[in-house]
Amino acid sequence: MWGELSDRQKVGLVGIALCAALTAGYWIGRSSATKTVAPLPASSSPNLGPGAAPVDPAVNAKVRVDVKGEVRNPGVYEFEEGARVEDAVRSAGGGLESADWDSVNLAKILKDGDQVVLKAKKAPLPAPAQFPIDINTAPVEDLVQIPGIGEGMAHDIVRWRSENGPIQNREDLERIPGFGPETVRQMEGYIRYF
To answer: CA 30 → CA 24, 25, 26, 33, 103, distances in Å?
Structure first.
């Protein structure tokens, strides 16, 4: 009978047989995967004392959370499952005046092992210097705004004028170690001497 079939018919029969085998394998595998396992008896459950009933983990589940940053009492706190960041901050004594409330999502639900960090507000940026600035009285914060002057060079200016007196002119500036003619040229228009 097999010999009487055309090649096309043979391929079709092989395909049908393959589909049937795959379907049977799927259902056999699925039925073994859905078998239930009996729970352990109370006497063999770990961490239970004599006569204690097994604890359902869904009931009274706890989460432990590390709360730090700008709170009054940083530390590790324990909460009922479903507690929120707001509860963690409140448990840590609330936020300090320096707290940046935009740094946390107070409505976020806590998970075990979370870390809640209430960050500090960022210090405001100094106001831009009004040029030209007095090289003999300007603080470091203003001196660093001069093109080509970093924090180290600003400190050098302050140190030099405290040790040697007021900076009178270009030549005095060039006497400061690290200040060459090119650096002093870049500063012109941004500084005054008195």
So the answer is: 10, 8, 6, 5, 48
